[in-house]
Amino acid sequence: MTASGPPPRNPFLLPGSGATPLAPLCPWKVPAHRDHYVPIGDSAVQHAKFTKWLASKVEGGLVLVAGGSGTGKTAVLNACVRLLVEEPVRPGATVHVVDLSSALRSVSMTVSQRRTAVCWEILDVVRREKLVADDVLASLEAIVAKPDHFHVALSSALTGPALVLAVLLPPVEDLVAEAVGYAESAHPWIFFFTESAYLAGEQLNTVDRLGASTVVLETRELGPGDLRTFVSSRLDHPVEPGAFPKINDSTVTRLSTTFKTIGQAQGRLYRIYENRLRKADRYGNEDWVTFDDVMSDDGAQLIEPLPPPVEAPAHVRWLTDVPTKEDLFRREALATVLSQRLRETRDTEPDTSLLMHVDGAWGSGKSTLLELLAAKLTTDGFTVVRFDAWQQSRLSVPWWSLLTGLRLAVLKQRTWTRPWLHVCEALARARHSGAPFAVALVVLSLLSAGAWFGVSRLLGTGVAAPDAVKVIGAAVPAVVLLWSAARLTSRVLMWRSAGGARLFEQSDSNPAARIVGHFAWLLRRSRKPVVFFVDDLDRCPGEYVVDLLDSVQTLVRDYPGRAERKPKAASFVVAADGAWLRSAYAAAHPTADSSAGSIGYRFADKLFQFTIPMPGLSTTDREVFLRHLLAIDAAEPRTEEIAEASSRVRAAAGHERGILQVIDSISDAGVRDVVARVAAVEISKAPARADAEHALAKFASLLSGNPREIKLFLNTYGMLRAIRTLEGNTVETDVLALWSIVRVRWPAIADHLQSVPESVRALKDPRWFAADFPEDLRTAIHDEQLRTVVLHPVGGPLTPIAIRRCCGSL
């Protein structure tokens, strides 16, 4: 490298390429690329062909560029788009480029499905960029699932605002029908641009014969002299001065017989120059790049500079699946939201039990969330009773395990008075045990009195001391036997053991009332509000799942005492996969109407006031977690920006829309993720919820007259809003409200739409797309009330993109 003079540069690095140095030329995005086109591989002929076609007064059409891999198809296509942008076919029109070239590449679809998906993508851009009026947008949404009708309506909509759409489609696969479909959809003011490495020969002729609205351009491999033209253009390009090695004619000649496409040549030459530059190895104007250099390992792959060695931890630790108390996935903010709700219920409705369902698949972090929530509730003055359902399912009946857990938790609240509470609890259990205990007590009392009377008579008759000792020695075993019998009787008849609990269930005519009575007695003796944490229920057999949840329902909802004696309420947080719970209820009630598992949904809706879906992981979350596992220091947080945005969130407290607008205004993903935690907590507080609920009043006509359903709708919206905000997802209020109504009134439909959002088209046009729904749900697509919600003008119609946003998958 020269000691002075112009700085070194890579002549094969395109301007503005940034992190994608080998990306094709794209002059409609990067104007500087316009001067880097080189007339090779018949590209000049193809450019002239497109220019002539565009000048033929065509108003819309399909541009298909075909050729082998690496022959420059994308560069030719982008040059055509640039020409349309700079010289629109419609005087005074604005050309809007819709780049879908990278969309749908990893999705397996039929031609019909791909065309429909493209329509949805175009509609989303039209909505986001506000290219048409709202009423026009609504009419387009109504027919988006019919590509042929959609493109006609879109063409008509573009006439008024003087717009031209240039749609860059995903590459066409080896089905000529797809290209034909796009050609037939190319109406005025819509230009489709696509490429294909598969279509050739007669297939291309078929497309080319479609008429004046279609033009087919072809790229080919490098011909004689093409590589020399390309290399000379790059080495002699009139850009800012720079120093770099040269390539002589003999090397270019040898490379011409090696490289067949421009992509191969560009890739190898960029990499050899970049590696030489990074290593400062023979990189000056007097240096040369030889054929052997280009074909060496340095030309085959880019050599990244080695980072400084990472200091390894003192030991390598095994990675376990044990729940952690460390918050790596923003779960602490969700724990704060749940603890707020529990505190509010304790303070405003102390006699009300709150039942929450944390819904998520195995490994989604439910147990970790419970650990974080337990720490907050303990600090807030709650007693947390942990219940491992999987362990307890092998021991005893559910109610006995719950009752035992509560008794131990209440006893732990005391120190000096704990023995007295033991005695009081035993007497209360005896009272609640009823007749069996009374009979046992009478029998044991009589036996004990008889033994005492016999010993007293013997001692009172003047029996000699040795004989008295013999008598007492014989009586001691009898007393011990009586004491053991009493202990055994108490354990069996007073259900202090698992076996006793089973016997009690079988022998008592009304065991539920007595169990609930003792549960209430224990709650009244608790010095703190009680919350049960039920974990690992989705690892239990279905029969136990139903028994446990029925026991919870009985213990917290069916207290038989008088109103003035009603105890402090116990709340439950159940962490389990919702699908497992529903299938358990469906199996337990096979004769009930269980189409699409509806019986399971009904039981879940009756039992739980809140269902909390586990939030998804953002890119930042995954990066932080991986760094934690690898013991790599995290990037420095942007504390000033985070503090400023967090203060704006708190300033907007009490106004849902204002909080969401703050999140929308944050462009940095890392800052947004951190501030979203603050926003989720603020948006879940009572003032913000009241503000949102005022906006939800307009949807009352879409709900049934069931009071539970109305409450469930408000709870569902509030929880979904908190979780989506935690994810940084600011889905519109009206859209989320419609989705919440579908989730509450038609949960099975909601689950299907969440899995296959595109199937929403069946609700818009049941005649054509009924097959998008499974057979057991197909009758629901004709439900006029459901269709009214999905197609509602306020917030609707619900589109696949809207559904993905509501579900946190976009």
TrEMBL record:
It comes from the Bacteria. SUPFAM superfamilies: P-loop containing nucleoside triphosphate hydrolases. It holds the Pfam family KAP_NTPase. Residues 348-722 form the KAP NTPase domain. This is KAP-like P-loop domain-containing protein.
